[in-house]
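Kindly go through one protein, given below as sequence and tokens. The question is how this chain folds according to its tokens.

***
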Amino acid sequence: MIIGYARVSTEEQSLDLQIDALQQKNIDEIFCEKKSGKSKDRPELELMPANIRKGDTVVVYKLDRISRSTTHLIHLVENFEQKGVDFISLQDNVDTSTAMGKFFFRVMASLAELERDILVERTNAGLVAARARGRKGGRPFTPKETINLALKMYRSKEYSISQILNVTGISKTTLYRYIRKGGRF
């Protein structure tokens, strides 16, 4: 079975160009959605893997239509590969059923792993440098007295949440965390 995936970022945009290109490849089923690529909530993309089986092929118009990032793309293609599913991007001339297509994705995976490793190294080096200068990092400490005042104001039901936050200077997240904990530290 040949399965297509088409996506545009906004409701105003049209899927027609992608659908026309996919239909020229004799697609059996097309998953379409109008969602931003930055959105992790893409129901059609999440539904698609449940409908693919070994020997199927997933086809997209362009790589950026299916993935949010290089890392996400590699993750998707690795999942396809584990299921025995080929992947084709029409405009990018990528076809994992060929030796060059598989090589391309292995190179991309290596580059993504290198990028992650470099990021970890930089982060660790930055933390070491900050500690050497006396900085500890992490969240700022909120004194117990401030938390107790905020909780007392909340329990009195005389103050709005915004008034409590303005008076105490704590964040809404911190206030609600301590409310859920029942005031325990």
